Amino acid sequence: MPIHEDRIRPVLPSVALPSRSDKQDLTAQTQALLDLGVKADRIYTDHGFTGRNKARPGLNQALAAVRTGDTLVVSKLDRLARSVPDARQIGATVHDPTDPMGKLFFNILATFAEFEADLIRHRTREGMAIARSKGKLRGKKPKLSDLQQKELVRMRNSGEYSIGDLAELFSVSRPTVYRTIARQMPINQS
């Protein structure tokens, strides 16, 4: 069925950025929406938010702009929501929740989006485990060398230095001093 521009006003939330990043380019998603006939001023974007984040200003603006008879277009369903409950909550605002076919179709799509997000998390964990087993993923480098850690514990055990003094002397935070002492104590007590 052809899309008649006079009958449809597309409204597009484009939530395209992965967690912890502002680096993903929205060009491909924006172009896909433009190719579908969406006008550039009707494309709403969120920068630096994930599909799991419910507080997304661009999505909220898009949902607020949807009127009866509008079609909400999203470049990928996983950009709208990454779990079935979230998709249902958002979906209830853009489709008739009493329509059994619409409800079924929306839930099936939401299930696939959640499945895809779960697969991505699983593959990431799997890859990290493999890298860790090969010694290529060791985590964050300690702020203090082994020698500095031993000296910090020796100084603390002397009773002459407070945690604050040690943090200042070694240019680290108080929690780092506490963690270092906790890690080194079993070594010194055995």
Total of helices: 8
CATH class of the largest domain equals Alpha Beta
The CATH architecture term of the largest domain is 3-Layer(aba) Sandwich
Tally of separate domains? 2
Distance between the termini: 77 Å
Q: Helices and strands, in N-to-C order?
A: EHEHEHHHHHH
Q: Find the structural class using helix and strand composition.
A: mainly alpha
Strand order of the largest sheet: 2-1-3
Average per-residue pLDDT, rounded, comes to: 75
| Alpha-carbon Rg, integer | 26 Å
User: What's the count of strands?
Assistant: 3
Uncertain regions spanning at least 5 consecutive residues: 1-22
- Shape verdict: elongated
Brief digest:
The protein folds into two domains: 10-131, 3-Layer(aba) Sandwich (Rossmann fold), CATH 3.40.50; 146-189. The protein has eight helices and three strands.
How does this structure look, described?
- With 190 residues, this protein is mainly alpha-helical.
- The protein folds into two domains: 10-131, Resolvase, N-terminal catalytic domain (Rossmann fold, 3-Layer(aba) Sandwich), CATH 3.40.50.1390; 146-189.
- The chain has eight helices and three strands, in the order E-H-E-H-E-H-H-H-H-H-H.
- The protein has helices spanning 27-35, 57-65, 77-80, 84-94, 100-133, 146-157, 163-170, 174-189; strands at 10-15, 43-46, 71-72.
- Strands 2-1-3 form a three-stranded parallel beta sheet, sandwiched between helices.
